[in-house]
Amino acid sequence: VGTSGWQYRDWRGCFYPGSTPTSRWLEYYATRFDTVEVNNTFYRLPAAKTFADWAARVPEGFDFAIKASRYLTHYKRLHDPEEPVERLMTHAAPLGERLAVVLLQLPPDLKCVPADLDRTLRAFGGRVRVAVEPRHGSWWNDEVRAVLEAHSAALCLADRGSRAVTPLWRTADWTYVRFHSGRARPASCYGRQALTTWSERL
After folding, report:
1. Residue 108: pLDDT band by 50, 70, 90 thresholds?
2. Measured on CA atoms in the order 98, 130, 195, 186, is the torsion positive or negative?
């Protein structure tokens, strides 16, 4: 269990002790959570030395999930995936076994293209677990499910408004859940009942 990122200024004082410098936030975070989803990789792929720095700052057993670049998912829209996948894997290589998952979040207007998804998953070559988060309803079909199963890729189970907005498919021997926004207060938080429901589901 972890959060989407760790560098939020408004966490100072309520999560991070006020005396903790921002340069030590990841270390502190890793004492409370055992994984984090890195979203800035979606906007700009960090240098390999940045990934190496992250790996050196967390304890053994800590996992990183990194979001694939929008160049692959939103600009190329899964066409010709080999080069962007290879670039991502090369840059992230210093994470070693701490790289637990790559998340492919697809554009909401990208309609179902099973062949392109298959080619993209094939480009990863089983080097890392891949979770796929389609956001267009055309993806919910048996062909897509079969592609995910063939590559042991997980359908990302997404929750918005404290309800699942994806099918509850199990396409691998692991799964990945993203909580986008709940209905509790303060705004977007998740209440006990919503979390209990997900706990029972899992």
Report:
1. very high
2. positive
Quote the Cα angle for 74-79-94, to 5°. 75
β-bridge partners, 2: 35
Tokens 């030395």 locate to: 49
pLDDT for position 95: 98
- Confidence (pTM): 0.95
Q: What does the buried/exposed string (b/e) look like for 7-31 if buried means 16 or more CB atoms within 10 Å of the residue's CB?
A: eeeeeeeeebeeeeeeeebbeebbe
Residues 180, 126, 145, 139: is their CA dihedral positive or negative?
A: positive
The residue behind tokens 């967390």 is 58
Closest CA to 139 of 174, 104, 172, 173: 104
d(Cα 143, Cα 124) in Å, to the nearest integer? 20
Percent of the chain with pLDDT over 70: 100
The token duo for 30 is 């890793």
CA distances, 80 to each of 112, 118, 131 (Å): 16, 11, 19
Judge contact between 57 and 30, C-beta under 8 A: yes
